[in-house]
Prior knowledge:
This protein is 44% helix and 16% strand.
Amino acid sequence: MDEPRRPLIRLTDVKMHFPLKKTSLLQRERPYVRAVDGVSIDIYEGETFGLVGESGCGKSTLGRVILQLYEQTAGSVRYGGATLNDYAPGYLFNDVSKIASVGGSAEEIAEKYPDQARLAGGLLLADDLAGAARTLRENLSAVKEINRINTALHLCELKRDAYLESDGLTDSEKRNLKKTETKIDSLTDDLKRAETARGVTEAALNTLREACKAKPGYDRLQERLDNSIDLSRLTKEEMRLLRRDLQIVFQDPYSSLNQRFTVGQLISEAPVAHRMYGRGTRQLEEYTLDVMDKCGLQNYFLHRYPHQFSGGQRQRIGIARALALKPKFVVCDEAVSALDVSIQSQIINLLMDLKEGSNLTYLFISHDLSTVKFISDRVAVMYLGNIIELGDSDRIFAEPLHPYTIALLEAIPTTDEASNKELQVIEGDIPSPITPPPGCKFHTRCARATELCKTDAPEWRELREKHWAACHFPKI
Length: 476
């Protein structure tokens, strides 16, 4: 595997606790299901990150938290596929205001307000911090204005194209077309002015950065600069706009598809909603057919309904629906587990081909380690809400460190008679995620467990190069 690129998804101490009702009036504390209980991982651009574990370990919940389908209880999920400079989410304006109002040295501000330090970086050393903050705010405002104009311009262009595609226009439609073209010209002029304004603010920021470069500590502060977006701080509308970058393929290819929609409607619905194409246009139909072709769906499927297809074909429809928005990151949540074994390899090969062709990044969730080994670059093993081992796929399967990973591998059936391998079953039941055991959560089922495992949670350590595990007594 090539050296990984920048993190596309960065999770820091993410928790997802689902509240339960109290069982009695005398119960003091409200119980929670600790589905995800402190996960910190990076998923690199262009890789397939496998996530494995038994049912109920929190895999699917973690995938949904990353996509903000669930609002996490604690921690942060940062996305590096869109930059702050290009996106300018609203929470940045509050951060900029805070930069201008706080006192203390640059290092003190950076420690006290890490989110603001990520935004400002070396600008925290500016002689006039309030002035630097104003310039930064003006730059963000210019970006937001450019985004607004681009959206309005795109809508007008879609409307114009729909008119131009029509074989014949009424007099009323011709007048509307003229008005739309006039509006496009006006927006184009507005866009040029907005881009000029941004150029001025960018130049001012560059001047400030140059003035700060000579000051001690600039490099340290600049290293803090993180141009990724904190998904948990986005508004619903901002998250909706970013949703086209982050998609999911569900486990059940039947229940995840609206049975009243045709294949064409299912695939084209999202591109229309995200204003990529106008509804009913030739461009939309051509694009839909192109997506279908890439996913192995024949053109004549366009007007058929999901119930008319096999499970494998329905999953191809689900994949096509997710890929129609040209995402950068896709969660494959048990995407092949509901399919026949003979079909699973076809869908896996399709996912791999699409990844290469569209430069996708996958989070591939599965309880089937054989499938994960085949498709994944790196693998994380999850148990009762925690990641307990992480490493390159080949290393995880050849030299597992954690007793739980070893037990999962020993439970994989084999057809190799020469191996004389005896199928093993993991002893005991998974503890309740409401009241997980103290110490190492796996100690209740682990043959290596000692008194230390029952009282002290193991430290997350890099035991081999790029191979981490949380275990007091790993197999080294």
